[in-house]
Give the backbone structure.
Amino acid sequence: MSAIPESFLKKTAELSSEVTQPFPNSRKIYVQGSRPDIRVGMREIDQHPTSSSFGAEENPPIPVYDTSGPFTDPDVSINLLEGIPDVRLNWILERHDTEQLDGPTSEYGRERQDDPRLVHLRFAHLRAPRRAKAGKNVSQMHYARQGIITPEMEYVAIRENLKLQELRNDLRYAKLLRQHQGHAWGANLPEEITPEFVRSEVAAGRAIIPANINHPELEPMIIGRNFRVKINTNIGNSAVTSSIEEEVEKMAWSARWGGDTLMDLSTGKNIHETREWILRNAPMPIGTVPIYQALEKVNGKAEDLTWEIFRDTLIEQAEQGVDYFTIHAGVRLAYVPLTADRVTGIVSRGGSIMAKWCLAHHKENFLYTHFADICEIMKAYDVSFSLGDGLRPGSVADANDRAQFAELETLGELTKIAWEHDVQVMIEGPGHVPLHMVKENMDKELQDCFEAPFYTLGPLITDIAPGYDHITSGIGATNIGWYGCAMLCYVTPKEHLGLPNKEDVRVGIITYKIAAHGADLAKGWPGAQIRDNAMSKARFEFRWEDQFNLGLDPDRAREYHDETLPKDSAKVA
Amino acid sequence: MSAIPESFLKKTAELSSEVTQPFPNSRKIYVQGSRPDIRVGMREIDQHPTSSSFGAEENPPIPVYDTSGPFTDPDVSINLLEGIPDVRLNWILERHDTEQLDGPTSEYGRERQDDPRLVHLRFAHLRAPRRAKAGKNVSQMHYARQGIITPEMEYVAIRENLKLQELRNDLRYAKLLRQHQGHAWGANLPEEITPEFVRSEVAAGRAIIPANINHPELEPMIIGRNFRVKINTNIGNSAVTSSIEEEVEKMAWSARWGGDTLMDLSTGKNIHETREWILRNAPMPIGTVPIYQALEKVNGKAEDLTWEIFRDTLIEQAEQGVDYFTIHAGVRLAYVPLTADRVTGIVSRGGSIMAKWCLAHHKENFLYTHFADICEIMKAYDVSFSLGDGLRPGSVADANDRAQFAELETLGELTKIAWEHDVQVMIEGPGHVPLHMVKENMDKELQDCFEAPFYTLGPLITDIAPGYDHITSGIGATNIGWYGCAMLCYVTPKEHLGLPNKEDVRVGIITYKIAAHGADLAKGWPGAQIRDNAMSKARFEFRWEDQFNLGLDPDRAREYHDETLPKDSAKVA
């Protein structure tokens, strides 16, 4: 047992109560799959009936995609000290292609485990990691290519459908299901997402299901152009600020508001332990940038990085359960000089670490030269690649330049290698791009990276609004999501200025939920318009409570309403 | 003299101090035109030099478009009780085509002037209105079509150029002036805006300069697809809230943060007097929806409206100096049934007033039948039409439907009539439109309305985010601005929920400044990228103070920065 300090116990107890608070007038529901242990959580928002002045009718509940995992299930008792339930463990075990290890096999993992000074920080229920049996490949892509539909794939199919087939057979939804024809720019959006469709998309590399075998708590989700557009959130402590409980709190907060995946970008002390706490409580896939931790291990001196230290870090994190790694293997030595005339040089932290290493040794990037070795590790745990764009533009001035696109072409080359190993891949994208140059990024990515899912940071369409970069980037994000980007990495109002607090995380997420949903609507995702239609009907009928509850942020809507129109009577008019 | 209450005096004195506070490290500059009384205000943001670690160099000041009028000029003493200086009065007088009236010629204007109970509300320095001499047309379009370049046109040309020609001849700006080639969708963006270009665009109806002869305080600005994209802000009291000083404060606040034009949508008591206070202190064009006030005059009963009451209201407001009128003349009787199957019916307030009138009398809209009479009034004062979209969609479900487009086609027909009278016209547009259907709105408007400037409300690209509709609409606004929309009507976070306060006005404006600038960048407006480039260079060189100051909202940026990185040292790193 670990000796958790009192303050942490207190904080987690408070947190448990806050993040488990239900959304107003919403119910957690589960849709059962082909077997009892495939139970897909959704949220249903109940509505009030239409008043007689508008023709008295019932308004049916609206199902919405739910990233909050067990936190909003009143039947699950949440204790962050214990971690959340292992929904996937049995699926992993029954494949009989993994083995439980005696303990961490990374050097660093063992060090941390054996260090008595860390007892007070350590998650109480450490589990010995699993790994593929010798010669086995446990990636979802590998299964998919063998024609196997995993429970993860079926889970994802049910989740993406959001009960649409059932709603179509229910007359109460007939008018609510009316929807404009979309413009999908070549995306293939079937009327029903079948498990077989999921399999075929994963097999083709057009979608990924990030799901490390050491993260059995994860509720599977899919990232691909032919599925709902997703959003990623970032958290992370730094040397200056924040403690484990603050990061766990931000993770839970992200799950609550709608983050589909989460990157832990911590760079401070105890990031190994912080990550363990996050993973054991995270219903969403967790990503990291392993080079950040590797750099800590060499005291911040990029030139001291080695393949061995990096490799140990990959294994350390893979065995904790990280679901996707950002790896800047496309920052080739030859590309570094292409950034010389830029306004903002290299702004990606991972990119500048690798550029520094390349220049210091005048050698090719070791992530590039060891790429096949990395694939061997990825497939033993099913960690997905998020191929990092280390040369992404840091200003609209530098958008779509040769450095950026040279790296993108290399990411395509690496994608092919990863796919030879049946390792799942997504591609990271910019950054800062004026609106009219956004589409070129999407088109080029689809072509150069063979339709591997694109995952972009915004892009910001102008640089002149610090304090509002959730908006400058949300505009670019909506557009690139429409054009085919599979996942949008959120940006908070603090971007370029400081570290986001909980409120910034909320605003960043809601902005990106708007972007992702706006993209789904524009693409014509089947059923996407139902929530808009329900909201609009509630608005037309002055059902204020329903308007708040159907919104992305019911609390904020209610608060704004009550500021100027505080009378309860106005809400039921 | 009026007897202004003590509280008002106190409030306006405070306000004067707040709105005249200079922007950090900025200077008000004036660019002189062809004659001494053409002095175009701009703001120049001074920068710190680059530190030696980045190659020690001077960073030249960056000129930015300035809507704040005399408020930010330290040489002008602001007293809201007196009004701001009459920059245009001499230009109007020297044309010798207007005459000063003895007093208001509208019945209502005279009533209010003579009512002793209003003494305490009345602006102190009421001026007798001017009107065109019999047979004269005083619109900017009329002059333009006669080949006359007015001082207003020259002013606008200088303002749009923002010293670009001078900067191009100054080597310090060489790298800062680098810019991506834009994609202007057929807009014609010359490298230099000449007064003749302004004249020709106004003559062709592709741009308007809203500038009532009774609003000589106005600093001329232009609205047209071949100029910088502009933003409109809305304020207005209602029966429930707000006093004259609050509305004047919001107007000044709007000028400060960047509102190009402002609509006073007041519906409460004393809107005549409120409008007078606003106009006498407003450096930007002021618009209204006269039907709102006409409705007050018939105690809110739409069916009691008459042409005579409406006509008197137009004259009342034109003689106060309102620069553009929203007139819902396109809501034809035959179109009302087209809205029957909509999710949200008719959501435009003006639209529903006129629809109600049409149905009650089963007659054609009197604004449509009297359109030529309205033109006669407009040209006597140079009030511009903002042809209202009374049938705009109130939900994404209703976007681009037959009702909306039927009205748009009628607005085109009315545009032609207005142009026969040499009256300036812009066309109002939606509203709520999914992203992929935005462009159709712009294309259809250009075609049906013969390239008259388009002025849209957002559009919101989804309905599901009450509390964040500045963002849902800012996304649509950026896109439609890029496609060619000339002016974007801002939306605040309180849209659909309540009335905006001062802070909401600020957030709405900054969001729309982002949208307008993002559109300018995407279109490739010459010089648009200089501020982005300066910001990016400051960012790369860790010049924190310059980053704050170059941003759209320096105060917010500084505040966010100081929250997590409070050390002053970090700002000069």
About this structure: Residues 569-573 of chain B have pLDDT under 50 and may be disordered.
